[in-house]
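BUG: 3D viewer hangs when loading the predicted structure for this chain

Environment: internal workstation, default settings.
Expected: structure renders.
Actual: progress bar stalls at 90%.

Input used:
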Amino acid sequence: IVIGRILKVLQADKIYLIARDTDQGKPRFQLLICIPKKRKVHFPRYEKKIRVSCRDIAMLSVYIQYSEELFVTLKNGHIFYSPICTPEQLIYDTNRVVFAAFNPQSVTIVVEEAKQTFDNIYQKAKFFLEDPRLEYTTDRRSELLFNLHQAIEHTCHAIIDTFSESHLYSNNLFRLLAEVNRYIPGLSNRICSFPDSIELLQQSHFDTRYRITAVTTKDWNTAMSQTLLFVNDAQIAFRKKLTEFEEKFGSTPPATT
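Structure tokens produced before the viewer hung:
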């Protein structure tokens, strides 16, 4: 039923099931939809249309990619897409395009490129947390909230840029954290359970000229601790993804799909 509704919204070459579970008894699916590059498609618009068309029967998290572009990406190997585009996870196929099997000899190259992309951006996040002024915050909390915002923002971009091979031009933490969860499900859940802290940090980004006047000790401690936890968790989760990739493709490549 879900596939039928997707095809009414968008012509697809292939559909891969990334993950499935339930939420309050309702099925939840994470899907990769490969489409022919016949015309330019605004991916976020169609991802939303697909979610809406299926919301009465299932909750969907959808990725859309052009088949022709994904063909090249998979041929070279990709830290996010290669583990997904396997025969075991293929649930719909027109056989119009065949994705090449990943060459295990490229594992090291893919892993090193992913590390380089992640580390280059992640270092910026660490830089904002290494500001010695964070140790003396009593009268500068409002100013230094901006540091925490930047640490989270750059950590999110490190994950998103590495796994999507594109840059999301946004400094909205709510949007960035939601996008992070698309690539590493659950990574953002802990910090997102403190929406007031995120809102405070978001406000600090827009109030860099006119500082927030009142930041309580409780608000500061929560924002600081959740930032440190998220930044640390992101690095651990990323390293785990690399290990899983190496274990999956280190010896035998998957079949073509």
